[in-house]
């Protein structure tokens, strides 16, 4: 009986932990109001896929023209995953990841924090977190 209770408690803990981790999933508007990013949680993997922009700017590039690798400059921005390597730390926080900024072609170390159901803080930095910038993203209706 004790092993059954321990098993149920473990399943409950795992289900709650994954529910908390999945709370970040959805469509987010970047801080500059120009990018729509779909955040997906697949097991331990977190991805941020560019969906497009809510703004109709004919001068916006369709491809990754700022990428430092010339071979990647023709890849489309729509569908591009800009997140990699994040680990869930609990309490709505992810760390140890990287974020790619297609506006300048640079990749930064990054961490994320879900501060409310509709607010996500993304901190990109070089070296240490102190040397970086925090953006606030807002959840969009799916």
Largest sheet: 9 strands, antiparallel
CATH topology: Lipocalin
What does the average pLDDT come to? 87
Radius of gyration: 17 Å
**Order of secondary-structure elements:** HEEEEEEEEE
Structural features, described:
The chain has 142 residues and is mainly β. The chain has a single domain (2-140), classed as Beta Barrel (Lipocalin), CATH 2.40.128.520. Helix content is 15%, strand content 43%. Strands 1, 2, 3, 4, 5, 6, 7, 8 and 9 form a 9-stranded antiparallel beta sheet that branches. The longest helix is centred in the N-terminal third of the chain and has 21 residues, at 2-22. Mean pLDDT is 87; it is low at 4-19.
Please give the structural blueprint:
Layout: H1 2-22, E1 26-29, E2 36-42, E3 45-52, E4 83-84, E5 87-90, E6 93-101, E7 106-116, E8 119-125, E9 132-140
Antiparallel strand pairs: 1-2, 1-9, 2-3, 4-6, 5-6, 6-7, 7-8, 8-9
Short description:
With 142 residues, the chain is mostly beta strands. Helices cover 15% and strands 43% of the residues.
Features:
single chain, 142 residues, mainly beta, 9 strands, 43% strand
